[in-house]
Each structure stands twice: as C-alpha cells, then as structure tokens.
Specification:
The protein has about 110 residues and is an alpha+beta fold. It has one domain. It has helices at about 5-20, 30-40, and strands at about 50-55, 55-65, 70-75, 80-85, 95, 100, 105-110. A 5-stranded antiparallel sheet has the order 4-3-2-1-7, with helices on one face. It has a two-stranded antiparallel sheet with strand order 5-6. Strand 1 (about 50-55) and strand 2 form a beta hairpin. The protein is globular and about 60 Å long.
Length: about 110
C-alpha cells in the first residue's frame, strides 16, 4: 500500500490536533491550566500528579514532593474544585470525611 503525500499530511495533522495536552485525554481546560501551573511552580525533584477514583469520582492529587517540611497534597476534581488536602502538619488522611486510602489509583499523570 502506497500512501500519497496529501494522505500523509492529513494523517499527521489529525494526530497533532488530537493531542491537546500530553497530560491526559480526559482533562478539562480548567484542569489542564491548573496542572500546568502546578508543574511550573513545583520545585521538589519528586513532585507528581496522580489520578484516582475516589468516592464515585475521578480526582487528581497534586503532590508537591518531599523537599519541604509539612507540605500538603491538594486533591482536586475534574471540575477543578478543591476537595481538600492530604498530609501537611496535621498528617491528614481524609477527604470529605472518608479515608483517602480507599481511593483506587488509576495512573500517574506527570512526574518531575
């Protein structure tokens, strides 16, 4: 099968236009901006963003890493709303009164 030049152009253009972000295909615009801002602001070498299924919803953890004392991990929904914080000085392990350890890990979205 020989692929003609216009076909290659259309194929390449389609593939490029479909990759709005390299973070996750299901990311909303507001979440995309929030994640990109976190990536730029993170300074710890082990900062990362993970995707979980928790309490019936998809949530994301914005983990700043461990290069500072008492830093907390923000938990946000796909709508960019803050669900709460894990860790920190209090060592919080709950979001909305439920142990976050019950969350199902889906995948790491970004890792420094």
């Amino acid at each position: 099968m020989i692929i003609k030049p216009p076909t290659v152009f259309i194929l390449v253009t389609t593939l490029i236009s479909c990759s709005k972000t390299n973070i996750d295909n299901a990311i909303t615009n507001c979440l995309d901006h929030k994640i990109n801002a976190f990536k730029k602001a993170s300074f710890c070498s082990n900062a990362q963003i993970d995707k979980f299924f928790f309490n019936g919803d998809t949530v994301y953890t914005l983990d700043p890493g461990t290069c500072g004392a008492d830093m907390s991990t923000e938990v946000i929904g796909a709508d960019c709303k803050n669900w709460g914080y894990l860790g920190g000085i209090s060592g919080n392990t709950q979001i909305n009164g439920k142990e976050f350890s019950t969350a199902t890990f889906i995948k790491t979205i970004w890792k420094k």
